Amino acid sequence: MNQIFPGVWKQKNKILTKNIVPGFRSFTEETLKIKGEEYRVWDPSRSKACAAIAKGLKGFPLRQGMKILYLGIANGYTSSFFSDIIGSEGIIYGVEISERSIRDLNPVAEKRGNIVPVLANARRPEDYRWIEQVDIVYQDVATNDQSEILIRNCNAFLKPSGFAMIAIKSRSIDVTKNPRQIYTQEEKKLSRVFKILDKKELDPFEKDHMFFLLKIKQL
Ligand SMILES: C[S@@+](CC[C@H](N)C(=O)[O-])C[C@H]1O[C@@H](n2cnc3c(N)ncnc32)[C@H](O)[C@@H]1O
User: Fold this and answer.
1) What is the per-residue pLDDT across 80-139, written as a single tens digit (0 to 9) for each?
2) At residue 219, does pLDDT exceed 70?
3) Which of 49, 53, 137, 202 could be stapled to 206 by a disulfide with Cβ–Cβ 3.0 to 4.6 Å?
4) 36 C-alpha vs ligand 1 centroid, how far in Å?
5) Which of 40, 141, 170, when mutated, tests ligand 1's pocket best, judged by the most ligand atoms within 8 Å of its CB?
């Protein structure tokens, strides 16, 4: 087993995190016992962050104890692995617009103890301004204004030393355009605010998606 990033391992072709709640499966994920510890298998076809790692993303900025603002947390599949990586000292504020998804997320959040579900519209950060400053903003809300939503939330909540990650879904922005054209257009918007540390197309795990790893530009 190789450690590929802090809190993330690879064994054969499987990407793993160490379960912070051993014995509890947040979803139907496979678990492995290695040297007495329980690891969870992270599926790149269910998670864009995992797909980006599987495609060879150069860095993955999550560290133990970090605070994360997660936009579009849904039922919490990806964030359950983030929750393993940051550990019980860290915290994830998970913004989600769908009540149904929040209902599915609640038992996972309760069991894990480091995920705070927030029923809100990520276009309106003023509605959840009680959230503290965070180390990472993660954006997986597939709308036609994805980059703008990320930038607005980073302006409100990201520490000056912070990182951001976004999975751009070209079909949500404009189905009539070639995905590469969309990626270039969105990269231009993002690079006004962020340094682009790396980017990866997510196929074959996710069609027509580009994942960006970003760092706030210092003025
Ligand atoms: C692709 S899914 C997220 C999957 C999740 N990130 C994962 O990997 O486990 C996108 C989610 O964004 C939510 N969403 C869409 N528009 C939103 C908005 N304006 N504010 C907050 N959430 C939104 C949807 O309800 C959906 O659950």
Assistant:
1) 999 999 999 999 999 999 999 999 999 999 999 999 999 999 999 999 999 999 999 999
2) no
3) 202
4) 35
5) 141
pLDDT in tens, 9-58: 999 999 999 999 999 988 999 999 999 999 999 999 999 999 999 999 99
Distance separating alpha carbons of residues 219 and 11, to the nearest angstrom: 41
Domain boundaries, the chain: 45-216
Ligand 1 atom showing the smallest separation from residue 72 Cα: 12
| 163, β-bridge pairs | 136, 215
Q: How far is the CA of 15 from the centre of ligand 1 (A)?
A: 23
pTM of the model: 0.97
The verdict on the CB of residue 98 being under 6 Å from ligand 1 is yes
Pocket-testing residue among 42, 77, 78, 97, ligand 1, by greatest number of atoms within 8 A of Cβ: 97
Instruction: Quote the CA–CA distance of 13 and 114 in Å, as a whole number.
Output: 28
Tokens at residue 41, please?
């298998």
pLDDT, tens digit, for every residue of 111-126? Answer: 999 999 999 999 999 9
- Atom 12 (ligand 1) nearest CA: 72
Q: Which of 47, 70, 92, 58 shows the shortest CA–CA distance to 150?
A: 70
C-beta 43 within 6 A of ligand 1: no
Q: Is 80 in the pocket of ligand 1 (CB under 6 A)?
A: no
Question: Hunting for tokens 């790396």 — which residue is that?
Answer: 198
At 8 the three-state DSSP class reads: strand
